[in-house]
Here is the input.
Amino acid sequence: MKFAHFSHVWGKPGMTPHQRYEQLWRELALCDELGFDYSFCVEHHFQPHESWMSSPALYAVAGGMRTKRLRVGSMGFIAPLYHPLRLAEDIAIVDQMLGGRFECGLVPGISAGFFKPFGIDYNFRKSPTLEFVAYLRAAYGDKQPFAFHGDNHNTDSALIAVPPVQRPHPPLWMMSRDPQTLEFCAKEGINTGFFIMVPRKQARPRYEKYLADWKSHGHRNKPNVAYSTVVYVDETDKKALDTALFRASRAYEGLLPVKTPGESFESRLANQIALFESRGEAAAARLTASLFDADYIMANDLVFVGSAETVTRKLRAAAEEGFFNTFMGEFNFADLPEPDLMRSIRLFGEQVMPKLRDYEPF
Here is the structure.
């Protein structure tokens, strides 16, 4: 298994953004010391109540400057929000600044609220995201200046002044549970994965097919299938539960619709459930309905909270159930105090990771 520090860079009560970023770099430095493989961030916009990270490129450069071996990346760039040529240039420069340690995640974007202020149609986001993969390969090709003409992107005679260190490009990721997107990722050699909102039993057959498709296309390396949720490790189960369980049940409150004056937590949750149901995602709707119930998330191992022994056991069982070989742990959530946060990261790195390194779910 491989291990990543994953962060929404949640806004923290009583902290300025600068203070929050400085805390983030301390987290990454500790992960680097402990031998984590990766560190990833989201790209979210216009939600000060939720994420304070709108620029994965800046995250990667700053994180890379504070680490020595950790591979740092986006999870991911919301590709439709960028001019493809500018994004290709930025990815290459970031990879050079990190000395070839950049991991490049691409996503179409999950929230319509990210698109409207940019004047971009939210309903027209998947096709340009998938096509950007071919664009990126053309941009970094041996023929320079390059040209590209697709359904969404068109460029004539552009010269990439700075190529990436990693050729033909940094490793690509596209977190998805969509069957067609997974077929695309398998064909193109793109790593994938899923988040807590997707039930692991439902996910497994999709990623088993992804792996079979990957092999059928002749890729020599094994893909990364990632899973991301909240994790907290402490010296005993009791101490872990007392410190983090309720906080874990509020970890994803920022993903609910923005609170309007006088609106209750319950109504915001109901609106989010209705959104999943309108998309035909009944399982995700049911999971979301229980995501903020501390007893439910603990009983169903939707979060991993406990001693190192407990978290190791639960994480291995989840990997087998969900068919993932990379774990992206969200260590910093809710109002978790920094001493507890850093102790959790250290215990995970020193006592959980070594016991799971040799475990391969596929």
Summary: The chain has a mean pLDDT of 95. The first helix runs from residue 17 to 34.
